[in-house]
Target: 2-C-methyl-D-erythritol 4-phosphate cytidylyltransferase
Amino acid sequence: TKIWALIPAAGIGSRMKAELPKQYLEIDGKTILEHSLSKFLDHPSIEKVVVALNPEDKHWSKLKVANHPKIKTVEGGATRAESVLNGLKAIQQHDGANDWVMVHDAARPCLDSGSVDALIQAGKDSEHGAILAIPSVDTVKLANANQTIDKTLNREQIWLAQTPQYFQVGQLADAIVAGLKQGLPITDEASAIEAQGMHPALVIGTRKNIKVTEPEDMMLASVWLAGM
Ligand code: CTP
Ligand code: MG
Model:
C-alpha cells in the first residue's frame, strides 16, 4: 500500500493568542509544523506529504522544508474538514484514490514513530481505517444547556481521539463530501466515516501526543520534544 501523510496547517490558532498562527511558533529552534512534518518525512513507510496551508500564509515559504521533494502543498479551506478535503482531492488527482492516508494535525508535534507503526498495522486489519486515541483518565460528564450535569458517561467506553487518523483515500474523501453535504459537524476524519455507518478501529496512542491549543501547552510540548 502506498501511504500518504496529509497535514492540515491552515488554521489561525485563535485560542493560542499569539502573533503567529501556532504552527509557526518555535520550540527548540524549529516550528511546531516542522516538528510535526519531520515525523512523516523521516518515516520509511510514508511516501509523500501533503500540507494544507492558509491562502494568506506568509510563513511557509521561509521554512527550510518548503522545498522538500516529499512535500506538496495545497490551499486549505474555511474549516479543518475542508482543508483535509482539498488535500484528498490533490492526492486523488495523483492517482491516489486507492492509496491510504494519515491525516495529522500540524499542531501535534510530539507524535512518536511507534504510534505511526501501530496505526499502519491496525489499518491492515480494518476495513474502515483506524485512529490513535487514548482511554479517558477522567470521569466524563454530559452537560445540560445551563451547565449542570445531565449524567455521567461510562468511562470504560470513553476514548479521546487524537491524530493521525488513517483511512483509504477515496473512502475518506467520499465520507467528508457526504458529511459536508448533510451539514454534519466534522471535527475529525473518523466522525465523517462514522456518519456513513462505518466503524474505524481505535489504536491506543500516548498522552504525549497533545494538540498544542492554548499558551500553556507550549511548555508541555517542549518537555515532550526534549525527550524524543
Ligand atoms: N486547520 C486547518 N484548516 C482550518 C482550521 C484548522 O487546516 N480551516 C488545522 C490547524 O492548522 C491545526 C488542525 O487543523 O493544525 C487542528 O485545528 P485546531 O487545533 O483547532 O487549530 P486552529 O483552528 O488553528 O486553532 P483555533 O481553533 O484555536 O483557532
Ligand atoms: Mg480550530
Notes: The first helix runs from residue 32 to 41. The two ends are 28 Å apart (CA to CA). Residues 8-15, 23, 52, 76-80, 83, 105-107, 211, 213 surround cytidine-5'-triphosphate (ligand 1) (CB under 6 Å).
